[in-house]
Amino acid sequence: MAYNLLKGKKGIIFGALDSNSIAWKVAEKAHEEGASFTLTNAPIAMRMGEINKLAEQCGAVVIPADATSLEDLENLFTKSLEALGGKVDFILHSIGMSPNVRKGKDYGDLNYEWFLKTIDISALSFHKIMQIAEKKDALNEGASIVALSYIAAQKAVPGYNDMAEAKAALESIARSYGLRLGPKKIRVNTVSQSPTMTTAGKGISGFDVFVDFAEKLSPLGNASAEECADYVITLFSDLTKKVTMQNLFHDGGFSCTAISDEFIQAFYSKK
Ligand SMILES: NC(=O)c1ccc[n+]([C@@H]2O[C@H](COP(=O)([O-])OP(=O)(O)OC[C@H]3O[C@@H](n4cnc5c(N)ncnc54)[C@H](O)[C@@H]3O)[C@@H](O)[C@H]2O)c1
Description:
The chain is α/β, with parallel strands linked by helices. The chain has helices at 22-32, 43-48, 51-58, 70-84, 99-102, 112-135, 163-181, 199-202, 207-217, 225-236, 261-268, and strands spanning 10-14, 36-40, 61-62, 88-93, 139-149, 187-193, 247-250. Helix 7 (163-181) links the parallel strand 5 and strand 6.
């Protein structure tokens, strides 16, 4: 059900690769809620993914950009403002990639060149996007900027590897930029989402176990990509104007649960 929460708002959505992507679901919901937006992804992902299908469905223009390239981002903002006919009201950063994870490197044997790439793609890109947006005066007063994070920023998770450091940096950038953009009434937040079966998620070793464990430990169960999109839409809407510089857990209660009855039963019921 749509509520017209984003009627008349304009945005840029990064990171829709295929229909499993969290960004894909956000784009569908933003369209349903009355927003117009441009879609962007790395040029290579565009060739592999199905973004044009989504663009057609949402009446969106697709503009390729490697989110680590300042030149690409400048071009993206220039073209987005042209296509949308004005400044933007929301931005979704839904980008993550670690060459160390992708190539199966152990945390005790990291390739540091790749570590820097992980940080650049998964965290610094968020800063770059906001820096370019600010320099180009591309954001309307009251705009809302959201990036996606994961619990491994706060608590160690085996196999999440150097992405944990990237997510910690991402959340810190949200706070620092939120402070900076506050005087313009612009909000910056991260949403820390449950493990979700997407291309990025499935790249983490033992990911199916994380999903199952989190599903069992979370009082409300895991949040789906679609539910994540619903939450992100509220953050883009005018209903959350005073929420900024937060890392908002969207995880069914996982982050606040130390142990559950189900685990006690499973481990101790025979003693
Ligand atoms: N899937 C999960 O379990 C989970 C949980 C919490 C947070 N997240 C976060 O959600 C976000 C979206 O991931 P997803 O799960 O939808 O997976 P996904 O694989 O569908 O999306 C990741 C996106 O990042 C894009 N990307 C990678 N390198 C890029 C670059 N250089 N420039 C521009 N884009 C680039 C990819 O093309 C892809 O579209 C990521 O930040 C991820 O870490 C995912």
